[in-house]
Amino acid sequence: xxxxxxxxxxxxxxxxxxxxxxxxxxxxxxxxxxxxxxxxxxxxxxxxxxxxxxxxxxxxxxxxxxxxxxxxxxxxxxxxxxxxxxxxxxxxxxxxxxxxxxxxxxxxxxxxxxxxxxxxxxxxxxxxxxxxxxxxxxxxxxxxxxxxxxxxxxxxxxxxxxxxxxxxxxxxxxxxxxxxxxxxxxxxxxxxxxxxxxxxxxxxxxxxxxxxxxxxxxxxxxxxxxxxxxxxxxxxxxxxxxxxxxxxxxxxxxxxxxxxxxxxxxxxxxxxxxxxxxxxxxxxxxxxxxxxxxxxxxxxxxxxxxxxxxxxxxxxxxxxxxxxxxxxxxxxxxxxxxxxxxxxxxxxxxxxxxxxxxxxxxxxxxxxxxxxxxxxxxxxxxxxxxxxxxxxxxxxxxxxxxxxxxxxxxxxxxxxxxxxxxxxxxxxxxxxxxxxxxxxxxxxxxxxxxxxx
Length: 453
What we know:
CATH class of the largest domain: Alpha Beta
CATH architecture of the largest domain: 3-Layer(aba) Sandwich
Number of strands: 17
Radius of gyration: 23 Å
Number of helices: 15
């Protein structure tokens, strides 16, 4: 049985419309509370509270009060952190008297969207089996046709303070640097302005005035142009950009260059290895990380393991391998010593610490990671068939890999939600990339047919 409501990152949708509507939010709170009460060891261990946090979207408050209404109906106690980051909810849920946490956010999406992300007391996302159980309970509550009664919430400011204090405690010394920081008018606005000046940084702030509708609007990790300009104008040591719920961070070097998650994984991975804190000398990344990262890590004696796209899969492989570090090009980076999820602010602290102690700049690091030319082509097909059955496609893939001889990479896969085939090629030259994306795409069209509209 597959999940209908929960995706890889909780329940998502347009705020006010199912499944991000008052009744479903209330039903989720009730289902979560009911599940907790059916798990006696959790409640008897004193875990009788459910933590609720949100980003800055205008729909966050009413969704929080509906989730809280369901929690109360189930006989447990909600506690409200107000605006906080997703990793902040994960940290507090793991370290406090909480059977679970609910983060209300749609991450990097526009303000019209929102989401309900559930985190267990372990600090990790719920197991698929538990999400299926919650879905069944949600459907049962919705089928009753009862009114969804909201529960008034007051923000407990001590919760944000606990999380900020924890982050500060992971740092040795201070950062006497000039920074430009873009908080995306989102969750980071409640944490970063308290934290970075406390650590000795001089900061030029961008997008720290949320109004409920400007989260991620021409700012944050998807829109780095303003941050690049500010870094150059102010002569900052580096720029930092968070997304709406601050579980990812991207950077800008002193010369204005963009620094993605691949470069961060190289910088932090090699530093952890030098310090003897990289178990197995392994870093976990996804299939989308550039071949240049793999080669750069390899030259420092670090093995890179690849997973499917998604921080969920990165985390699973990290737990399996006992790895200390993993992440994605998008800026989700997980440091297992400190956190159970990607944390943009924590990532920024680790980057600042390494640069301060090494005397390097991000421009120096960028030069150590060659970015191989990469191209992604989407082919809309009439139908999907297992790739192994597509003889002509397999022949073209084999020919490309033979020509690359370890200096290139071929990735062909189908979209999980659409009739799309995706072809990604990395190689030494743009000419090779164009040649092989074209040949493999043509073979797919010939075998599966195409849709032109």
